[in-house]
Amino acid sequence: MADSSWQHLRRETLAVRAAVPRSQYGENSEALYLTSGYVQPDAATSARRFGGEEDGYTYGRSGNPTVTSFEQRLAALEGAEACMATASGMSAIMLMCFSLLKAGDHVIISQSMFGSTLKLIGSEFGRFGVETSIVPQTDLAAWQAAIRPSTRLLFAETPTNPLGEVCDIAALAALAHNVGALLAVDNCFATPALQRPIELGADIVMHSGTKYLDGQGRVMAGALCAREQLVVEKFLPVQKNSGMVLSPFNAWVVLKGLETLDLRMQAQSALTLELAQWLEAHPAVARVYYPGLASHPQHELAMRQMNGLGGAVLSFDVKASSSEQARARAFHVLDQLQVLSLCTNLGDTKTLCTHPASTSHGKLTEAQRQAAGIGQGLVRVAVGLEHPQDVQDDLARGLNTLDTL
Hints:
This protein is an alpha/beta fold. Helix 1 packs antiparallel against helix 3 (65-78) and helix 3 (65-78) runs parallel beside helix 10 (248-257). The chain folds into two domains: 9-260, 3-Layer(aba) Sandwich (Aspartate Aminotransferase, domain 2), CATH 3.40.640.10; 262-404, Aspartate Aminotransferase, domain 1 (Alpha-Beta Complex), CATH 3.90.1150.10. The protein has helices at residues 11-17, 43-50, 65-78, 89-100, 115-124, 140-146, 169-178, 191-194, 228-242, 248-257, 261-280, 299-305, 323-335, 366-371, 388-399; strands at residues 82-86, 106-110, 131-135, 151-157, 182-186, 204-208, 222-226, 285-289, 313-318, 341-342, 352-354, 378-382.
């Protein structure tokens, strides 16, 4: 849980200061505790700690000081009472669903969510009797119409991957709370540097720490931020029994990544806006998807929810006359890259490009992809920290030669 003594500190300070107390050695950089077990002072204390009657570390699956530092820091940044770290973003979603849902319960999710999220909740949990409705991301009436007496959870991702669709968090929170359900928000793209869903009414904030929280493409990590009661009573028991825990080393890496989160998100958002404007003017580009552009359908909402910045991910469609030609043209743009990385991750200091229809959303049916707006000519760009002209030159190498195909 977050330390109450941090309440008066601002976000930038919390990003470098929130952590467990220093050890007796007085280290300034947070310590990395690599251990699977902890020596107990006596049998009675051991019994109380294992019984949950007294705070204290017992076993790596139940807690670690380095992991706790990461949890406290992220909770403080999100304005949450508590945080539960997990091995990956998808394991965070798995933990949330296992903790909150049972057979017969109903979940509403956006059709624009990350492909693996759609498969996990819509298909895998369906095998255990959890029912799912998939609705258009920005259609509040569709979310309302999908609600049933058995609805327990609304789960939104904003902005979405890869089209950058933005939902009204406060409006969805009101819908959920009116029927006694919870609202969970995937805040991976915006991060707490740009957007704090709990302040807008969300109950749970989910993160893939693999992305911007780390910021340099080094490790896998995930997290759930929520009320202390929800974390302690719902998430913690399931995590202890399932073992969906974050390793201390990965926690330490992401903990240090959080120190530069605010600076990175500001810089990368500015670079992404510049690239989006350049792409929008390119004759080979049919459309650019980026919340920071005035042409984006939810631009005004995004600017209100995201501290006036659009984030660091954009997507664009290449011009094409058919789906087959679109795929070939998108592949051509990617195959001509010499500086940027053809890589499905995002949130790195290096600019990463990918073809969503054949990677992140490749396991969906064509109908599902079309419903989500993922065409074969779509290219996603997660902008890093290179000089903007070098990024443009590398993309232009493919865009400017599409007519040679």
